[in-house]
Specification:
seven-stranded mixed sheet, alpha+beta, single chain
Length: 162
């Protein structure tokens, strides 16, 4: 089971530049769907890569689905040479995404994010219209299934209050 709060708090405490996306972001916006991992888009500056490595270093990050014993070094160089990483660690599952379909990278998505507060910390989360857009662009069955619920949540927020 993924410790969502533990992962998010760890990133915030290490000052990692990230935007929460995916199922946990949908939950922050009111979705009732269940997710098993944390998905983030992370800044790709050298300093941010160092912070990200430090944030997860003591949680034994390893490539999710890789056979045991496959050589994997958790360091800034690995992150710099790659882009997207599906990891498992002692805190659970986390997907580190340098770029996403329909949204780009951290810098491009930052204007489409809002500040959220959960687990006693503040962090950036993709806003609802952008979350709908990137889920539609991803086109995976699980993303397409969640769009109707997210659109209903968005419509409810836009409805005038009396």
């Amino acid at each position: 089971m993924t410790d969502f709060g533990g992962l998010i708090r760890r990133l915030v405490e290490h000052h990692v530049e990230f935007i929460l996306i995916g199922g946990v972001a949908a939950t922050i916006h009111g979705s009732a769907r269940f997710t098993q991992d944390v998905d983030i888009v992370y800044g790709r500056t050298a300093e941010n890569l160092r912070r990200l490595v430090a944030a997860l270093a003591d949680s034994s990050p390893y490539l999710r689905g890789a056979p045991p014993g496959l050589p994997f070094r958790w360091d800034s160089e690995t992150l710099e040479r790659g882009l997207n990483f599906a990891l498992t660690c002692t805190l659970g599952q986390i997907d580190l995404l340098g770029e996403i379909t329909g949204g780009g990278g951290y810098t491009e998505l930052l204007p489409a994010s809002v500040t959220a507060r959960a687990w006693d910390v503040e962090f950036r989360v993709l806003d609802l219209p952008a979350l709908i857009r990137v889920k539609r662009a991803a086109g995976r069955p699980k993303d397409l299934e969640s769009i109707a619920e997210l659109e209903a949540l968005y419509a409810e927020r836009k409805r005038p209050r009396h």
